[in-house]
Amino acid sequence: MGKEVIKILYVNIKKEFDNFKLDIEFETNGETMALLGASGCGKSMTLKCIAGIEKPDEGEIILNNRILFNSKKKINLLPQKRKVGLLFQSYALFPNMTLRENIAIAVPKDRNNKNEIINEKIEAFSLKGLENNYPHQLSGGQQQRVALARMLVNEPEILMLDEPFSALDEHLRWRMEQEIISILRTYGGNTLYVSHNKDEVFRICEKVAVFNKGKIEEINSREEIFNRPTTYAAAVLTGCKNISKAKKISENKVYAVDLGLELNCNEVDDDVKFVGIYTEHLKVSEDNKEDNTFEFNILNVIDNLFSHTLVLSPRIKDYETQKIYMEVSESQFKGIENKKSIYLHFNKKNLLLLNK
Amino acid sequence: MNYSPLLISLKAAVIATMITFVFGIYAAYFTTKLDKAKGLVDGILTIPLVLPPTVLGFFLLVLLGKNSIIGKFLSSYDIFIVFSEAATIIASAVVSFPLMYRTVRGAFEQLDRNMIYVAKTLGLSNHKIFLKIMLPNSFSSIMAGTILAFARALGEFGATIMLAGNIPGKTQTMAVAVYSAVQAGNRTLAYKWVAIMVGISLVSMIVMNKFEKMQVVKVGKGGN
């Protein structure tokens, strides 16, 4: 057995630009990590700093024991020396080169079996027969594969994908996502995946870093982040639509300010700021005998393709409260179609208590 | 009819365009890399486009005249720029330079920046990126800029008459010949030169449009 290769990316950087402050620190250990955040939160800038295209004001970037950037030691490697792979949504293929030339130009100089390497990649990415085509003659899927092949043939020590699918329509997106997942599995090194799409992130990544206004709010495994987000930004980004300001009442009771409801919880921290629940976790009840069950007026029904979204507000409140959104299936909807109000159960274990 | 103005003009324009071609592309590449001084450098390089050519000619006269440092240096080797054939070339080159520089710079700036970033992370040197990616993908704009510069160089009048004068058979270009013909009351001759110049300019513009259309076909999917 050979020596275990250390696959660690450590990033700790600060950068100010356009009245915006990026100040982040994180580490990955050979896994696929998502940088999840709304647009303009510093995700892409982070990738550019790691790639050496942008220079951080201060800090340190280390990749597999190599210092890529260190402001104190005045180290700032050129992008050419960093061994990082970048994939953009536009794929950025070289339009003046054929498919084969696009891959060939990325083969490291010191290889003497260049042709073999290229042929192998063309084969592996099912691009055979298209070698002499120019990028504009290729389909979107083929372009993506060329971009991936070009990136991998360069033998990068980290892959960085910047919203690779955001310009695609849904069915194509699904297929290309599957391709990327299988490629990332075989690559097995550090991967950073920038996205604002929660579903995509959940399917592709093992770890998630939640970006908000230039800071990382939370880093955790995808299961933790998606089941138990601990911050407002993380909850919103993972798709939580029902979030209210909260005040602690007692050790296991919280007051949802925007809804005017008292909710029983398992354990309330002193610094709780918000309470939330995913639309999928709300349950319709027959009556309000059960704990944490309240009557809600149905204000509106939004029809989706395979479900309905109910827009609700708590009954017996003489002031306007925040609305609650709940998703019900076709069959569930049959039972409540003609009702003016329903009982909703907020399961204790599904309540998200957010402290930021 | 004496055709020497046509030959003098063509010679000056062709050589001036070659000079502009090299310096224009280089200047465009150089300024796209600048950060803070970009505005100032761009202003200096573009100024020949907005200054009256006579003012430009005056500057050149001061710079290259026999009392200037350059003029003195050259005259010690028996080289005299002012009122020489070289003056027609220099005047045309200076006046047409901004057109080349601007067109190419525009093309460089329109290149997908992500493409350049990716090229860098793939380990391609800046030199290689310039030669293998920036130049080929700006080909049609470079050709369009070259033709534009050529057409401008061919029609140069103001700076030429200041620096090169109006010596028939030596520095009298077509544009100057039109002026001389009108001055001398020779309308027929003036019409002939005008017709030739309009013809050449028109053909140049048609060729240039062909190159610009090529661009549309070559560019693939862009975006950020």
From TrEMBL, chain A:
InterPro entries the record matches: AAA+_ATPase, ABC_SmlMolc_Importer, ABC_transporter-like_ATP-bd, ABC_transporter-like_CS, P-loop_NTPase
Keywords, ordered alphabetically: ATP-binding, Nucleotide-binding, Transport
Signal sequence, start to end: none
GO molecular-function term, one example from the UniProt record: ATP binding
Domain ABC transporter: 3-238
A UniProt-annotated Pfam family: ABC_tran
PANTHER family: SPERMIDINE/PUTRESCINE IMPORT ATP-BINDING PROTEIN POTA (PTHR42781), SPERMIDINE_PUTRESCINE IMPORT ATP-BINDING PROTEIN POTA (PTHR42781:SF4)
Protein name: ATP-binding cassette domain-containing protein
Species per Swiss-Prot/TrEMBL record: Tissierella pigra
From TrEMBL, chain B:
SUPFAM superfamilies, per database record: MetI-like
CDD domains: TM_PBP2
Superkingdom to which the source organism belongs: Bacteria
Organism from which the protein derives: Tissierella pigra
Molecular function terms, GO-annotated: molybdate ion transmembrane transporter activity
Purpose: Part of the binding-protein-dependent transport system for molybdenum; probably responsible for the translocation of the substrate across the membrane.
Gene: modB
Family of this protein: Belongs to the binding-protein-dependent transport system permease family. CysTW subfamily.
Ranges of residues in domain ABC transmembrane type-1: 6-208
Protein's cellular compartments: Cell membrane
GO-annotated cellular components: plasma membrane
Membrane topology, record value: Multi-pass membrane protein
Transmembrane segments: 6-28, 40-64, 79-101, 190-208
Signal peptide bounds: none
Keyword annotations of the record: Cell membrane, Membrane, Molybdenum, Transmembrane, Transmembrane helix, Transport
The protein's name: Molybdenum transport system permease
